[in-house]
Amino acid sequence: MTSTDGNLVKEPEASVNDTVVVNSVSGDEEDDIPMLSSHTLEALKEFLAEQNQAAAGAEEAVDVDGEEVSLVTENWNLSQFWYNRQTAETIAAEVAALSETLISPRVICIACPTLYAYLKKIVPGVPAQLLEFDKRFEQYGDDFTFYDYNQPEDLPLSLKHSFPIVVADPPYLSKECLEKIAETVKFLSKPGESYLLLLTGEVQTLLAAELLGLGPCGFRPEHSSKLGNEFRLFTSYDPGVRLGGWQHDI
């Protein structure tokens, strides 16, 4: 929910003269120094720029019941780490189960575009919105709203108190980030009948309970890229037998 998660780091440009020394040596080895002409260097720089641009806009396709779920490539500079298929499908299935209990189901994903993409394939009948900092997701049209967690309530008033299901995945494991995400959650949640799911590091267990009254579930989210931090799923409700149930001993 994402959430939650900024410019790409630009590689330093080499100085272009008639020739460029690749390795610096001295003495009698000078005659063996490999040299690149300015034309060759420019061609190399152009190729690398094209590769970086392609990587930034590339999409990964995951097959779900015979249909592909397209995901843009992770941008680690924005702290983007996509869920693996099992995690995305498990959370999407939980959203589907919660939706069946609601007269007018509606879900918003805070900084968790992987979940949004799976929801659109698995439960397309449930209206879903995505809040994201990365403007590549403008491809989702009206379902996309730009979101900077540093401005937690800088959102359209039409979204205020409109969502009975809120899923959040803060982009950073800091106290400040979770505090601001919590403000956004309260802005978006529909009073009286809302369900909150939070995916974040296990280190946030006590703060998640303090800020939002959440309990940890037995199900443990995983990412396509192996991360060093242990992640947990927290909910505002007891899921019963789903999601491994609440872990009351933590």
From TrEMBL:
InterPro entries per UniProt = DNA_methylase_N6_adenine_CS, Efm5/EEF1AKMT1, Mlase_EEF1AKMT1/ZCCHC4
A Gene Ontology molecular-function term? Answer: protein-lysine N-methyltransferase activity
The protein's UniProt keywords, in alphabetical order, are: Cytoplasm, Methyltransferase, Transferase
Write down the Pfam families for this protein, in alphabetical order: N6-adenineMlase
Instruction: Decide whether keyword Lipid biosynthesis is in the record.
Output: no
Location comes to: Cytoplasm
Say yes or no: keyword Transferase present.
yes
- Stated EC number for the protein is 2.1.1.-
GO CC terms, sorted: cytoplasm
Query: A GO BP term, please?
Result: methylation
State the family it belongs to.
Belongs to the class I-like SAM-binding methyltransferase superfamily. EFM5 family.
Q: What does this protein do?
A: S-adenosyl-L-methionine-dependent protein-lysine N-methyltransferase that methylates elongation factor 1-alpha.
The record ties this protein, via HAMAP family, to: Methyltr_EFM5 (MF_03187)
Protein name in UniProt = Protein-lysine N-methyltransferase AAHA92_01799
Can you name the source organism? Salvia divinorum (Maria pastora)
